[in-house]
Prior knowledge:
The protein is of the alpha/beta class. 34% of the residues lie in helices and 18% in strands. Helix 8 links the parallel strand 13 and strand 14.
Amino acid sequence: MKSGENRTKLDSTGFACDINSWSTVCVTNKPVKIDTNTMQVHLQPSTTSTINTTTIVRPYSMHESPYVMDYITPVTITTTRPKQTTCDHNHEHPAVIFSTGGYTGNLFHEFNENIIPLFITTRLFKSRVHFLVVDHKPSFIQKYRRVFPRLSNHEIINMATDSSVHCFPGAIIGLKYHKFIGINTSETPENYYSMPDFREFIRQTYKLKTKSVFSTKNPPRLLLISRQRTRKFLNQKEMVKMIEQLGFQVIIASSDKEMSNIEKFSRVINTCSVMVGAHGAGLANEMFLPDGGVMIQVRPLGFQYGVDAFYSEPGPGMGLKYLEYRIEPEESSLADVYGLDHPVVKDTASVAAKGGYAAAREIYLNKQDLRLNVNRFRETLVEALGFIGRHKDVVKTR
């Protein structure tokens, strides 16, 4: 807990909460009893107060989305005396309570709201913590089965099925969110963690061998994320032919099943110097690129929400280069449907102004495919080759 006021309160009372628009994290450095039957964390009453206090936390880092938070199981932190005064289990290390509900199943959100916040919150303990999970999703736990053992030496406790009272020397309820695919180093203990630290943690976890794009002399590899439902590349074969003519070895990722296997897919990405994809969760895979790698976001027509904050801003903090290819109206399938003079194509801002975020998302993300101008897109790829020190190779192919 970094802020001075919260730090002072924690030192004086043994309990404090850090609250912002994204997340709530409550910390106690005194012994607690956690009753998994009632989802209650019982604190030791303060010696300076006779008034019982209660705090309710939904331990998920997405408080700006009320719809999602309504489905997160609340945990009650209270100084009231527990019904069961004895402990079924006594633990030597503190507890960390968090939810695996919300947007899990989406890579971008999994790293933003779970994996990176877990790293920030628990790395200082050097794995000497117990994870207690609400809204337990076995698929999520299985997906990150390599990550959890490196953050905690103990088996994960599913609070919904445990039905007992656990006693801990302290507890953290909730996870600290910093920013999209990033860490505010100034907010970590003693400036202890940064995004490069997290990237090194990921490299070690998944045994990723390529640390830098400049450490190999092999032909550059490009990963193309090929979406199958929305924002598809309609002329993908033509794109691949042009990319290969530039000297790239192209790897196409088109299966959700393939990309959901983090352990295998991260190793594939780690062999690539450049990653290309239309705006979407799959671009979060950039974190597996080697240092100096280039992520190219193909920006669809019309939809602007999160396009910069989600992917362009995090890149430099991870030691990556970011490039963007903005499609022109004639490169959008919406031009085929509505015509170039229709407001949906010609005046995209009017759609959001009239129907709001939901309307813009439905049209520009859910109903749009892309047909890239390969000659124009080639210029972006040439720029990427320059970033990875392969610009001379391009000259030879002309």
